C-alpha cells in the first residue's frame, strides 16, 4: 500500500532543498532560479517512531525496519498554471497523482534569493497556489458536468449522483472554497469526493520555511500561516530547510549536539514526516520477533485482514485470526511472553479495526 505527499509551492521557496534533506540525497537540484525541478523527484523516507526501537530492544530483534512515507518534489507553480503558464499542466498533473499536499511557504527574508512576486508574503503565496488549483478544478468540473447531464437523461443513476455532488461543489469553488472544505455534502458524497480526484480535495499541510536563527521560534510570517491553517482546519509545521540540509549530513551524535545548540529537541523534518503521516490519516502497527521488528502502515479504519494484506496478499486471503497486543501492554509486560501470561494477548477476528500501535501475529491458511 503506497502513500505519498507532494511537496508544492512557488519557485524559490525551498522545496528542493527540503526534499534533498528529507531523502538525504541530491536527487533534486536546488538552485536559485525557477523550474530547477523539471521532473518530479520521488523519495521514500523513514517515519520516526521511538516505539519501534523499544519493541526491538525487548525482543532482541536482529533488524529494525521502520515504516515509510513517499515524498514527491514537484516543479514550482506560477500564476496562470491552470491555463498552462510556466510548467502548469505538468504541475497540475503531478499534483493529481499524490495523496496529500505539503505546501512549502517562504517565511524568510533573503535579498540574495529572488521571489517571483518581489516580496515575502506567505499568505499571498498560499492564495496564489490555492487559486490555481481551484481554477483547474472548476475547469475540470465544468467539462465533466456537461458530459454527465447527457448521461442522466439516459437514466444513469451513478451519473445522477456524481452530477448532484458536482453541482454542490461548483458554486463553492467559484466562491473560493476548496473542495476539502465544502459544506452541505451527504455522508455518501463525503465518501465519493476523493473519487473525483479534485486538486483542492486533497488534505494540506503548510510548511513554513524560516531562516536558520528562527528555526526554534518561528517568526511573524510563520505565525500568520499558523493562524491561517487553524482557521481552515489544516496542519502546519515550522522548519528551516537550510538547517535541515546541514543536519542531514551529520551522524547521530553530531546531529544531537547541533540541535541542542539551536535550542531544538528534534529535527524539523521528523515533525514534517509525522505531520505528513497524520495528514493522510495513517496508522502504524508492528510485527516483532528475533529476526526483525518492523513497522507497517495502514489507513485509519482498516480491518485486521487488510493489515495482514499489507504484509502479504496471502495473509489477507487466508486470514484466520490476529494475535494482538497493544504497544503499552507489550512494553509493560516486557514482551510477548509476559503479555500472554498476563492475559493481555487478545485474539481478534476479521471485523477487528486496527488500533495505532497494535503488535500483531497473524494466523492464516492458504
Helix proportion of residues, in percent? 40-55%
- What overall form do the CA principal axes indicate? flat
Count of separate DSSP helical elements: 14
C-alpha-based Rg, rounded: 23 Å
User: Strand-residue fraction?
Assistant: 15-25%
User: Structural class of the secondary structure composition?
Assistant: alpha/beta
| Amino- and carboxy-terminal Cα gap | 21 Å
Kindly report the oligomeric state of this protein.
single chain
- The low-confidence runs, each spanning 5 or more residues with pLDDT under 50, are 25-38
Mean pLDDT: 86
Strand order of the largest sheet: 2-4-1-5-6-7
Q: How many individual β-strands? A: 12
Characterize the largest beta sheet: strand count, sense, and whether it forms a barrel: 6 strands, mixed
- Helix-strand sequence: EHEHEEHEHHHEHEHHHEEHHEHHEE
Folded structure, characterized:
This protein has 366 residues and is of the alpha/beta class. The chain is built from 14 helices and twelve strands. It has helices at residues 15-23, 50-59, 88-96, 122-153, 157-174, 187-192, 220-232, 241-247, 252-261, 268-279, 304-311, 313-317, 327-332, 336-341; strands at 4-8, 41-46, 63-65, 68-73, 100-106, 204-209, 235-239, 282-288, 292-299, 319-325, 346-348, 359-364. The strands form three sheets. It has a six-stranded mixed sheet with strand order 2-4-1-5-6-7, with helices on both faces. Helix 4 (122-153) packs antiparallel against helix 5. The chain starts with a strand and ends with a strand. The model is unreliable at 25-38 (pLDDT under 50).
Amino acid at each position: 500500500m503506497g502513500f505519498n505527499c507532494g511537496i508544492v509551492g512557488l519557485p524559490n521557496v525551498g522545496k528542493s532543498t527540503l526534499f534533498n534533506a528529507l531523502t538525504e540525497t541530491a536527487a533534486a537540484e536546488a538552485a536559485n532560479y525557477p523550474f530547477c525541478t523539471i521532473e518530479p523527484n520521488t523519495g521514500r523516507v523513514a517515519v520516526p517512531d521511538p516505539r519501534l526501537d523499544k519493541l526491538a530492544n525487548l525482543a532482541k530483534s536482529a533488524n529494525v525496519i521502520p515504516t515509510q512515507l513517499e515524498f514527491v518534489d514537484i516543479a514550482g507553480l506560477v500564476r496562470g498554471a491552470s491555463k498552462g503558464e510556466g510548467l502548469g499542466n505538468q504541475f497540475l498533473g503531478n499534483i493529481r497523482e499524490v495523496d496529500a499536499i505539503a505546501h512549502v511557504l517562504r517565511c524568510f527574508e533573503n535579498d540574495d534569493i529572488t521571489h517571483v512576486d518581489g516580496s515575502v508574503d506567505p499568505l499571498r503565496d498560499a492564495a496564489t497556489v490555492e487559486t490555481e488549483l481551484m481554477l483547474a478544478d472548476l475547469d475540470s468540473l465544468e467539462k465533466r458536468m456537461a458530459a454527465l447531464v447527457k448521461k442522466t437523461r439516459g437514466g444513469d443513476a451513478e451519473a445522477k449522483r456524481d452530477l448532484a455532488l458536482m453541482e454542490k461543489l461548483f458554486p463553492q469553488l467559484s466562491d473560493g472554497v476548496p473542495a476539502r472544505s465544502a459544506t452541505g455534502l451527504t455522508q455518501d458524497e463525503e465518501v465519493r469526493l476523493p473519487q473525483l480526484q479534485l486538486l483542492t480535495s486533497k488534505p494540506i499541510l503548510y510548511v513554513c520555511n524560516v531562516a536558520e536563527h528562527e528555526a526554534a521560534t518561528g517568526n511573524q510570517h510563520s505565525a500568520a500561516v499558523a493562524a491561517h491553517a487553524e482557521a481552515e482546519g489544516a496542519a502546519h509545521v515550522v522548519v528551516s530547510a537550510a538547517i535541515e540540509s546541514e543536519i542531514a549530513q551529520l551522524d547521530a551524535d553530531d546531529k544531537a549536539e547541533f540541535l541542542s545548540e539551536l535550542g531544538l529537541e528534534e529535527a524539523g523534518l521528523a515533525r514534517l514526516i509525522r505531520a505528513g503521516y497524520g495528514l493522510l490519516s495513517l496508522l502504524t502497527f508492528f510485527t516483532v520477533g528475533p529476526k526483525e521488528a518492523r513497522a507497517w502502515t495502514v489507513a485509519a479504519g482498516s480491518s485486521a485482514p487488510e493489515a495482514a494484506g499489507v504484509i502479504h496478499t496471502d495473509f489477507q486471503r487466508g486470514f484466520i485470526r490476529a494475535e494482538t497486543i497493544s504497544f503499552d501492554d507489550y512494553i509493560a509486560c516486557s514482551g510477548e511472553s509476559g503479555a500472554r501470561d498476563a492475559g493481555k494477548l487478545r485474539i481478534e477476528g476479521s471485523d477487528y479495526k486496527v488500533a495505532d500501535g497494535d503488535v500483531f501475529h497473524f494466523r492464516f491458511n492458504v
